[in-house]
From TrEMBL, chains A, B:
Family annotation (Pfam families): LacI, Peripla_BP_3
Annotated keywords: DNA-binding, Transcription, Transcription regulation
InterPro entries assigned: HTH_LacI, LacI/GalR-like_sensor, Lambda_DNA-bd_dom_sf, Peripla_BP_I
Recorded GO MF terms: DNA-binding transcription factor activity; transcription cis-regulatory region binding
Record-given protein name: Transcriptional regulator AglR, LacI family
SMART domains xref list: HTH_LACI
Keyword Transcription regulation: yes
Sequence ranges assigned to domain HTH lacI-type in this UniProt record: 2-56
Length: 351, 351
DNA sequence: CTGAAAGCGCTTACAG
DNA sequence: CTGAAAGCGCTTACAG
């Protein structure tokens, strides 16, 4: 394995200059930099991470703790995020060490990893309302970045989508089409994003379609089965007036709703409009649903590069309160949404 | 953070001696070792991994590549193994870096990780028949250990259970109870362990109960749904004579079989005996099934300590062909198996 | 049984 | 713009 020394000998430069050239220090001459870069490529130079880490005092390792849920439903989104996050961190010379935890104490696994004393920072996933992890890590001065947002005006680094707008955009599309009885199959209530979506949903509905009864909001694991079961119960009409549109937390949930409609002989979008939020998981193509699914669209994996970069910036001393990004999901109108059925543009009745 | 130097100053010893004492070198005097260990504990000494790694030339990082399947069914066993493996490797000062791959080429992701040139070795999971990964890694002299076994007389390190015996033990129990028409819901055919289980099943059946028609062997994802669907079709009797016993690849599959029996009004074990192989996943308690499930039993997570140790030994120069262990699963007889129903002890007919 | 010393491959003040 | 040198915290022949 070629070292800085090899390059320096090859070019008659000092190791220091070679190091500076490769690390993009501005004071290096353009010609020198080019020569160094070429020699590095020619010799197949790769920095020795352990040496870099020893010299800089960083471990180059960041951690992420995955909560295993009691119901054992391995989250499909998990793999997608891990894939991208690992790659994005690797591109920035950081290794990601995963640790799976099954305990009840949300900060205990972080304490445990910190004790081993070899982590530069954390990526926090699956925030819950009033998540205690940011407070704990900040009290110990441990850098981290959160995927999502657990508090209203956080003083920590995070990247997420505007979940209230996800609901509002969907509601606005549907109310413009005349819908008033819109139901929501939300993500699991214990997660912060779900709380934001529900709040956004209720606010947008109140503004455009009328108040929403509790019976028109439900949640469950983000599966086809959840969608099927809830839609079947709502659409059968046994539980009161039927919704004319259903908003789904994920595309698999929407697949279940579509199946329920089919089983009940309801046409989509003739009798029922269906929308979902689309995390753009691989192997799930809402464009190929039948009918093609109207969605709000925000690929989960696109969060990974910003998250990795924020963490690097944070490690390099950037103030975390500057490392905050909220992006707005896109809206893709396809064939699963249409005008409200005639005579059905009647708001929910609050009991 | 305390260093070796701190300890050496504290005790008036050399850094070298402190290092030797802490690393268990035999030549250190017993009293000296004790003093050093006490001082290390008192000062909260933790070795600096980067320094160790730089000095030893090892990265201290091993990789594991997780294949993401097209059907997106995140394997429940995955989390269990990752949890334990991470912990066991950490206890041996190794970090585990996961990489998720979705491509078709089984060795490409290993090549890619190798190019980054910072891995000491790999843990290989989910072996398939004639798995190309061992050959590739051996050709590059990359240490690895396989969870399971992909070849008949491997020349590489691996740890696994005797899958043929898993089937044979189950078949023997059932034939002793008089069963002759035993059906198998196997793990997915693309995995090596499933091929071993099927071969073991057919051999044991041929020896004790008669040959098995292809229609009595099926496979699918290791889910409740797989068990329910297959059992329903077999037990309805539409596809030929009913099995009097069903062997399941996993406990969730058995849960599905039990539900199918219930739905059809069949009693277990009166009309049907049910067995499964139990990976001992958390939150699944075959002892609490109704009836309590008879199983072959081999906790997946118990493979992790041996795997971690084997990898360490391999990294320390042990010849991989010595690092091979096959353990035998246990057999736990509970209430889901019983004597064959009267007059039903008639072998399968091969069409 | 213990120590002095070299070395692992980087980074980064300090000088010029 | 470049270099000489110290230092990061270990490990490990080599000597005694």
């Amino acid at each position: 394995m070629a070292t800085l020394k090899d390059i320096s000998v090859e070019l008659g430069l000092s190791v220091a200059t070679v190091s500076r050239a490769l690390n993009g220090f501005p004071e290096v001459g353009a010609r020198t930099r080019t020569r160094v870069q070429e020699a590095a490529a020619r010799l197949g130079y790769r920095p020795n991470r352990s040496a870099q880490r020893l010299a800089t005092g960083r471990s180059g390792v960041v951690g992420m703790i995955v909560k295993l849920r009691a119901d054992m439903s391995a989250d499909q989104t998990f793999f997608d995020v891990i894939t991208s996050l690992t790659a994005e961190l690797a591109a920035r010379d950081l290794d990601l060490v995963l640790s799976v935890d099954q305990g009840d104490d949300p900060v205990a696994p972080y304490k445990r990893m910190l004790e081993r004393d070899l982590l530069d920072g954390f990526v926090l996933n699956a925030p819950v309302p009033n998540d205690p992890r940011p407070g704990f890590l900040m009290s110990r001065d441990v850098p981290f970045v959160m995927h999502g947002q657990a508090h209203d005006a956080p003083d920590y680094a995070f990247f997420g989508i505007d979940n209230a707008a996800v609901s509002a955009d969907a509601v606005e599309l549907l109310t413009t089409l005349g819908h008033r009885r819109i139901a929501l199959i939300n993500g699991e209530a214990r997660f912060a994003f779900a709380a934001e979506r529900e709040a956004g949903f209720r606010a947008a509905m109140a503004a455009g379609a009328g108040a929403v009864p509790d019976s028109a909001v439900a949640d469950g694991p983000p599966t086809e089965n959840t969608g099927y079961t809830l839609a079947l119960s709502w659409l059968s009409g046994r539980t009161g007036p039927r919704p004319t549109a259903i908003l789904c937390a994920t595309t698999p949930v929407a697949a279940g709703v579509l199946r329920a409609a089919r089983d009940l002989g309801l046409s989509v979008p003739g009798d029922l409009s269906v929308m979902a939020h689309d995390d753009a998981l691989p192997n799930i193509r809402p464009a190929h649903f039948n009918p093609a699914l109207t969605v709000t669209h925000a690929p989960l994996r696109e969060a990974c590069a910003p998250l990795a970069q924020m963490l690097v910036d944070h490690l390099n001393g950037a103030p975390p309160a500057r490392l905050q990004t909220v992006i707005r999901a896109g809206l893709i109108v396809r064939a699963s949404t249409g005008p409200v059925p005639k005579g059905e543009d009647i708001p929910w009745q609050i009991p």
